Amino acid sequence: MPPKTKMFAALLIAVLIVSSGSDITPSTYKTVQSAGVDLPKRTVLNLGGAGVVCADNPSSGRTDCSVSGITEPGVIPNTLISGGGVVWTGGLNFTVSAARYTIGSVQYSSPQTDVSLAVADPLLDRIDVIAVDSTGSVVVITGTPAATPAKPDVDPATQLELTFAYLPAAAGQPINVTTSYDIYHENVEWTTAKVGAGIDLASPNNPHSGVVDIEATAVTSGNYAQFTNGVTIDLGTQTNLAFYLRSKALWPSTRSLQLTWFNGATRRGAIIVLAEGAFNFSSSNTTSYQQIVIPVSLFQINGVPVNRLRVTVAGSGAAIGWYLDDIILQTGLTPPGQPNAMIWKGAWNSTASYVRNDTVSSGGTSYVALLANTNSTPSAVNPDWGQMVAPSVPTIVTQVIYRAALCAGGSGSIGLTVPAAGYPSAACVIGANSLYGVAQFLDTESESFQDHFTLPEDWTGNVDFRLYWRANVADVGRSAVWQLQTACVTAGETGDPAWNAAQVIVSAASAVAYQWRLATQLAVTTTGCASGEELLFKVLRDPTHGSDNLAATAEAISVRWTVRHN
Questions:
Q1: Whose CA, among 12, 190, 421, 476, lies 20 to 30 Å from 386?
Q2: How far apart are CA 123 and CA 551, in angstroms?
Q3: Cβ proximity of 106 and 158 under 8 Å
Q4: pLDDT tens, 233-290?
Q5: How many Å separate Cα 18 from the centre of its chain?
Q6: Residue 243 within a domain
Q7: Are 259 and 284 members of one domain?
């Protein structure tokens, strides 16, 4: 008998003959069955236990009992087995860890995947679901914008929900997730320390992002990297500890990393072991970083102050090596049913019972339950509820627009700043009705222009970039590649900062010559930028880029930045 069938049969028999219940005489019940099999006849039939429901069935001459919460024998419910952690990476973007899961009793796996939500509706809120499916893919199920939005349907036959994102109207990012603490990015966040000569806390080799990472070379048991914050924090207010790990070589099966929290020198809570297969980690993958997401509830220290995280090499066998980078604590996104998950319950109902982290809508605003409650009306001052978005602080969208070139008296001039060499030429476009200038980026050399603008003092951290352009020939099936770089400067800093890594925008040409096209980059990388600083940007076309097969001049018409602030 399969294990599932055994469990089901044993539980049902136990429910029939154990616990307390009403007396039933043998003159009434002649036969008692478990799944159609006769049981020994007794003078008393006892029914009890969670989920047991019995009802008289006079038409069939029997009493029917059922046990809820038990799956049909041999059927495995849709389940996330390992991995599948979702991390918000800024704007509308998320990274989903590699996952193993079951759908319809069949096991699937999906690779680490970056996904993006669709742009927010300008007037109405929306809820999107991030899921995995029966093709081994990560998918975004886009919800329907509404005054009181609901989560979109997830098809249980082909999909498994991982989490959801609540996107307010005209917003550039969801409101049900926050990166609370940057623990390590460039070794300037939390204070680092180490034990072991093989650990480099600021290695320039193979960082996941930025310019440094933590590199471990031939490390053994007891070696560790440690991160200390200036103040204590309560992990009960957090959801996930997320980081990126890249192995140098296959680890012995006896090796692992141990993650431990401390308050000063005192260890707090449980030790989490990251070994082969845990959180879907594979040490055999030596070519790329793997996102690891650990629910902080596993540390079992809600309400206990901590200020130090330690990552320690444990076990026996050959020494191991790895790279560690981009460690954060994030609040809000967890698989349904995980502790600390925000679970969407729809419109608030006075008769419903809510538990901590249930999320509802009421009066056009969303709230998250801070305490278990019933018939406690959500409001900004009700201690049972936390307001997720305040209507009095709307997101304001500001457009910053640049003309790529000017046209005066039939002559064109560049509208942005250009270098001494390697820049586009300007030309006038004179139509039957319109007159405007274009910056002509040739297909024979790398050319660029740049400029800058001031980020608002109440900037939300999100900007989008759009470039109108056209090709001077009909180039169906061909594309131009635009590369965008940013940097920021504030008072007291050099006016010549290093650029952030280029973001590549592949934009298809049109089948009609000179037809306008739109190249878009949502959630532009603005690492190192803050409110009130000057954002510098550079737009480059390099026709030697492998994806630039336009083989023609690309004419830039205008640059438009969308900046969100409160």
A1: 190
A2: 41
A3: no
A4: 998 888 899 999 999 999 998 889 999 999 999 999 888 889 888 899 999 999 999 9
A5: 47
A6: yes
A7: yes
Residues 117 and 12 in one domain: no
CA nearest 439: which of 289, 536, 540? 540
Task: Identify whether residues 406 and 364 lie together within a single domain.
Answer: no
Separation of alpha carbons 436 and 417, rounded Å: 18
264 and 326 within one domain: yes
**Are 231 and 282 part of one and the same domain?**
yes
Spatial separation of the C-alpha atoms in residues 12 and 7, rounded to whole Å: 9
Q: Does 335 fall in a domain?
A: no
* DSSP conformation letters of 278-314: GGG--TT--SS-EEEEEEGGGG--TT-EEEEEEEEEE
For residue 14, the SS3 value is helix
Specify the DSSP element, H or E, that contains 462: strand 459-471
**CATH (domain of 499):** 2.60.120.260
For every residue of 326-382, DSSP letters joined together read EEEEEES---TTSTT--EEEEE--TTSEE-TTEEEEETTEEEEESS-EES----TT-
pLDDT in tens, 427-480: 999 988 999 999 999 999 999 999 999 999 888 888 999 999 999 888 778 899
Cα dihedral sign for 258, 263, 265, 268? negative
**256, 275 Cβ separation under 8 angstroms:** yes
Q: Based on the fold, state whether residues 265 and 193 are members of the same structural domain.
A: yes
Domain final residue, candidates 67, 93, 116? 67
Average per-residue pLDDT in the chain? 85
- Answer yes or no: are the C-beta atoms of 326 and 211 closer than 8 Å: no
Give the structural domain span for 218: 180-330
How many domains is the chain partitioned into structurally? 5
Over the stretch 90-100, which tens digit does the pLDDT of each residue have?
Answer: 999 999 999 99
State the distance between the two ends of the chain, measured CA to CA, in whole angstroms. Answer: 62
The C-alpha atoms of residue 238 and residue 294 are separated, in whole angstroms, by 11
Q: Which residues are CB-neighbours of 365 under 8 A, at least 6 positions away? A: 378, 387, 388, 389, 390, 391
SS (H, E, C) 119-165: CCCCCCEEEEEEEEECCCCEEEECCCCECCCCCCCCCCCCEEEEEEE
Same domain, residue pair 362 and 316: no
Establish if 165 belongs to a structural domain: yes
Four-point Cα dihedral 155, 159, 164, 168, nearest 10: -50
- Residue 13 φ then ψ, to 5°: -65, -40
* Rounded-to-integer distance, Cα 435 and Cα 318, Å: 71
Same domain (yes/no): 309, 438: no
Asked if residue 72 is part of any domain, the answer here is no
